[in-house]
Structure formats: structure tokens, C-alpha cells
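RECORD TYPE: protein structure
NAME: Phosphotransferase
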Amino acid sequence: MYKELTEWLESLGINDPELQMLHGDASARRYYRLINSDGGIVMDASEAKESVPVFIGVAQRLTDANVRIPTINAYDLEKGFVFLEDIGSTHLLDKCVEGVDARPYYDKAIETLVQLQTTSSKGLLPYDQGFLLEEMNLMTEWYLKAYLGTTLECLEGRMLLESFSLIAKEVLSQPQGIFVHRDYHARNLMIDSNDEIVVIDFQDAREGALTYDLVSLLRDAYVKLDRRELRRLILLFKELKGLDVEDETFIRWFDFTGLQRHIKILGIFSRLALRDGKKKYLQDIPQTLKYILEVGQKYPELDGLIALLKSQYGEFKDAPVTMRIF
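PREDICTED:
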């Protein structure tokens, strides 16, 4: 496939292209950096060609909404190749280190999210009740049963379904019909040479809840925010959106959307490790589980769910905490 990639680049007028393989994501896509000529990033989606038209279509929506994304220089739907602008290698995550004040970058990420939510969601698949429940059931199948080897009693299974239904209902109680990136977090936001936010990995976008991407950013599996900074950023988003809703109602929307997302993520990280052999995602399970426990304990109606997950918590007590921003 490497030879086919270089031949394709040559057909675009790039002489003797030299490619450096980059660290991939959780999908079947592979990425390469062109290190000669004028540079660029090549996405090889030859094993998932059907994703390329979707990628191009969502990219156009974002461009129309004046959201900064990597420019698409060329693509080949038949081969599954896309040639993109090279933004560099700095992610928002790289700003979340000791000695760097990440707050201005998070403010920019909130402003970018507000702009991103002006993107048309017409025709995108919806985050409806069925899909919300389907995602949460990944935790039951892949985290509890497959990864932990838990055998659920009948009453526990029923309790999980009731808890998931309650969470889905709360997610659906907030404003809907919003363009949702679905993975708007520190590894999918890049910083360009002008210190501006560039959004990547947007091809799985759906139409859904107001706070979904806000949760992805602020309750990131890879970054732990200080409680005061978390609240400041939540309310900054609310202010910039001009929402006429009580702070505590908005935070409840945020919390329950976060629970839905993190319950799903427990299942996805477990599936990536067990089915796809991507063991590195197991290291991110502790923080994800902690989010569920910390938030869920605020709401008595979720006592059963939290008790069940707490019984599995011991093995993670000494896990390293991810980076914090104050």
C-alpha cells in the first residue's frame, strides 16, 4: 500500500515523495507525513474507503461554518486516500504539562466549540434514545462481562437498563439538533503556527445534544481539570451560547451527558484492547471510571449503578492520575 500511496502522490505532481508513518488513531485509518516537497499529511483509509466521502462531506460543512480544519488538498475516493494540510504535531494535550498555562488554549477551545455548533447538522444520523442506549450497553458487554469477567445477576442487569434509560432521558431533555463532533477532546484539537485551534478527526459527527462535545473537552479521558477551572469553563460556554437556563440545570445536563459518554468509553476502551489488540487504551480506563463514580455519586437515583461499579474499583485505586490544569 505504501507504493500505491507514493505513486498517487506522484500523480499529483510530487516528485519522489518521502513519507514518515505517524501514530494512528483507534480506527483502521493510517497517517503519513510528507517530509519533502511542500509537506502535507496523507490519510490512508484504503481499509475503510466508505469513510472518505463522509470525511469530505463533514469537512465541507465545517468549512462552511468557518471552523478551522486542515485544508484538503486532494483525495481519491476509489483508493481511499486523502492529502491534507500539515498543521504540525502540537495537540491541545501537549499544552497540558507542568509549566504551561493551558487556560488560554481551553478558552479558545470553548470559543471554537461555540463556532462549531453553528455547523449544519441536517441529514446527520441522530443521537436518539436507541443509539444512546446502544452505546452504553458496550460497557455491559465489553467492560463488565468481557474485560472484568463479571457475571450479572438478573436484578443487576435490570438495574443497569433502568439506569441507562434514566441517563438517556436526561441527555435528551436538553436542546437537541446540534452538530456533534463526538470526540472533541485534547488529542483531536491541534494548535497551529498562529496558536489557533484546528479541529481534526471529525468524520463520525452526528446530530445530538447541546453538551456532548463540551463534555468530551472538559471531562477528557486524558486530562483531569481542576474543579474550579471545570466549572469556569462550563459556565463560559453557557455564557457564550447565551443560554437562558439556570446554572445548576445546565450542569445537570452536562453531568448526565458525561455519564453517558464515559459509560460508553469504558466499553470502547475494553473492546479496543480485547478485540483489536490495542492494549494502550487500558491505561485510560481508570480516569474514565473515576469520572463516572465522582459524578454519579451526586445523584441518588444512580446509587445502584455506582454501587456496582464501585465493587470493581479496587484494581484502579493506585492508578496514576492524568494531567491536571489549574
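COMMENT: Residues 61 and 119 are 6 Å apart (CA to CA).
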